[in-house]
Amino acid sequence: MHEVWKPHVVVAAIIEEDGKFLLVEEHTDAGIKFNQPAGHLEEGESLLDAVRREAFEETAHHFEPQALLGIYRWQHPGKPSKTYLRFAFTGQITGFDPTARLDEGILRAVWMSVDEIAEMRLRHRSPLLQQCVSDYLAGQRYPLNLLTDFADAV
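RESULT FIELD:
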């Protein structure tokens, strides 16, 4: 019988303030890498709730999505069966909780300039980090009403 293939649905927060982007430094199977605050969509969760949760769990910053930056498909080169479908959102920080514990595996949240991000490209978790920054800087944005969630529909 043929096994059903399923992509890993993930969300990411692309957060910029004063020319710097909020990233996380984290442990991965390939060593310590940088990424946007991101993670898997959980069962029963909307994409917007997922990105709010992931941003907070990984950075202790409250994030409010304002636009969809893009939808990205990436197949992990070392793991052909792992394909990620990333929904990346832009938005604003609405608060910070200095007492919050960061998710397991997250070393720190760090603000980096575009040049610093480019200099660290060999330590990016995936090419999605740079592509999302490039798309953000190019002004790419889609309205959130592009997404429809039927979880609460009657």
